[in-house]
Amino acid sequence: MTTATQPRGRARTADHPVATRSERLRRATRWWPALLLVVLFTAPYSALPLPGLLDGPIGSPGNLQLLALCLVFGALATGYDLLLGRTGLLSFGHALYFAAGTYVTNTVMLEAGLPFAASALLGLLTGVALSALLGAVGLRASGIGFSMVTLAFAQAGSILVQRDPGGVTGGEEGRAAPADRLPASLVGIEHTANLYWIALAYLVLVLAVVQWTVRSPIGRVWEGIKENERRVEVLGLRPYGFKLAAFVLAGTLAALGGIVYLLLTGGATPQTTTSDFTLSLLVMVVLGGSGTRWGPLVGGVLYTWADHRLGDLAGSGAVAGLPSVLRVPLSQPLFLLGALFVAVIYLLPGGVARLPARLRAARAPHAAADHEEVPQP
Predict the structure, then answer these.
(1) Is the separation of the CB atoms in 301 and 74 below 8 Å?
(2) I need a surface site. Which of 47, 133, 196, 226 has the fewest CB within 10 A?
(3) Angle subtended by helix axes 239-265 and 61-84, to nearest 10
């Protein structure tokens, strides 16, 4: 019996250091979100340059503006993933609620003369009411029918904005926000850091709300609806109400993001009302990893950064000096962005967020082979 039990004892002894190292690694990386938050919070004070990623020091107004937009769209993609990745609802009209927050807030300040705080509250409430009303109608359909209904609503909103009824939307040019109605601490290039911190606060809020709801009982029902809606019905639950809750929550977070976007850009533009805007959110989510904790955030940041930086690359002298067969496609930012998206999807199925798991899976066979080569006494 002693001879028979020795191999198992050796196996446990051999596996113990591996388990210990893995546990130490998990403990060391447990607090990385808090450390990253500290780094992001102190970014306006940093003079560190990031060649190739940013022009000049991190804390310059132009870079803070870009970083703030990355944070806003990372948060927006995270909220949109409540529908796509958590509940299995493919909406093509999410831009409508983002635009509601932007346009209603701006229009109320311009036309009614209310201060920013009151206007922002009305913009947020409009986003909540609009998502509840249109969600209640759209969720009567399912599958591709639901997607087409949300697309129709979004297109109607976009046409309404561009037709400029009563001159309140500004048509194709949009309308600038009134500086005298905004807080003085949020106006001017010298206050870019304050806008950046507002964008960071919005991101933290969205992440907290999404994680709390996903881990709650309603989040587990969302997961069940995504996997098998009929099974949820068999359990005695009504999927419609749970789907509507996800739809309204995602729309509310989008409307809040529209208000933050209004502060960052200083105005409301019709580009945020189009279905192309929602498709960009879809690309962000797929790029980062749908249904994952950090994937939509990573996808939103990466897409927004690439959208701005690749535009600079397309207009650079390096591209202008290339032969026409290369210069023509490379001078189009959308071509570069599309090529990047295709490359990531092809090389990283499941999104960027799946990369660490893939690396661990690739190392596992090598680690197992090393442990099998344990010297025998």
Answers:
(1) yes
(2) 47
(3) 170
Cα–Cα dist 174/110, whole Å: 12
Helix (H, G, I), strand (E, B) or coil at 267: strand
**CA–CA distances in Å: residue 248 to residues 13, 34, 66, 367:** 53, 29, 29, 47
pLDDT tens across 304-342, in order? 988 887 776 666 666 666 777 666 666 676 676 777 778
CA 329, distance to chain mean position in Å, is 28
Provide the residue type at 17 as one letter: P
Q: Which residues does 122 contact at the CB level (< 8 Å), separation at least 6?
A: 104, 105, 108, 114
For Cα atoms 48, 52, 55, give the angle at the middle one, nearest 5 degrees.
55
Of the candidates 34, 72, 105, the residue with the CA atom closest to the CA atom of residue 254: 72
b/e burial code for range 234-243 (CB count within 10 A of at least 16 → b): eeeeebeebb
**Which residue in this structure is represented by tokens 């635009």?**
99
pTM for the complete prediction?
0.85
Among 273, 252, 240, 305, smallest CA distance to 87 is for 240
Q: C-alpha 278: how far from its chain's center?
A: 12
Sequence-distant (6+) residues with CB within 8 A of 300 are 70, 73, 74, 75, 76, 77, 78, 281, 284, 285, 288
Residue 203 tokens, joined? 């991101």
| Residue 90 predicted with pLDDT over 90 | yes
CB atoms within 10 A of CB 112: 11
Residues 170, 270: Cα–Cα separation, whole Å: 9
Residues whose CB is less than 8 angstroms from the CB of residue 33 and which lie 6 or more positions away in sequence, other chains included: none
- Two tokens at 28? 């060391």
Q: How many residues does the chain have?
A: 377
Distances from the Cα of 106 to the Cα of 13, 95, 114, 232, angstroms: 66, 16, 10, 42
Block residue for tokens 């409009």? 126
